[in-house]
Amino acid sequence: MQEWSLIIFTLLIQASVGITLLTTFTLIYTNKRLNNEEQYRYALPAMLVAFAAGTLGLIVSTAHLGYPLNAFHALRHVGSSWLSREIIFASLYLGLLGLATLIALFKKRIWIVLLLIASLLGIVDIFCMSAIYAHSSVVTWMHSNTYWMFYGAALGLGAIACLWSFVIQPDLPSPLVRRVVVTVVIMVIAITLCRLVAQPLYMNYLSTLGSSHIVTFPHQPLAAFEELGRVRLASWLILIAGVSALVLCLRSHRINQGMLALGSVLLVVAEVSLRFSFFSIN
User: Fold this and answer.
1) Is 282 helix (H, G, I), strand (E, B) or coil?
2) Are the C-beta atoms of residues 115 and 27 closer than 8 Å to each other?
């Protein structure tokens, strides 16, 4: 199925950006409380995972172009094509993240400024990625819900990596770690609530559409959307359960690894399922 390449590509890129963004946030938040060695031990594993996810995502992205070398032709219309802009910002983001990671590996020091710029480029990249679909002719994509979905996935998947980064570094200052992880989980709760609030507006938008609005022959996005109603409902329930598990993993002073593992699996399953529903238009 062709949509699987899009599912994997978009989720990997968004996860990469989310990891970089929350790693940068943590480093800035704790800048004067963690020394250089502690920053290095916390951030490097996350940076390596983010770079690997982003690289793999770009490789997978060529699968839906039909012929991999077509990716170079997609750069010819930067002024008018969201796809061209997305490719450029994704490349800039990954290049800067790779540079920051290499410097960290060889200098044993994290350059927060580079990570901050990479994070900003990643945020713009996700905006361009969302705009590709929001400005398409597929009616189920032409809504702000697309932006909420993509940014929400980035923040949720990034939060999982952020929490696990603290788990594998148990000797970091406990009170400081506690404040950071609580803040990160609150962010995930907030973005999830925003996504849920957007759903009634999205459903109302779809209810106003008729068959005359469908210009993606032979695709039938509205029919496919209705057929996958149970899948979407199950996905939202799984997502809520996953966020709840993240909250419960903070009940003690140390992160409960069992609840974090459960929440991580549920969030990943929910995002994959929601993305499958999003890309299924036949």
Assistant:
1) coil
2) yes
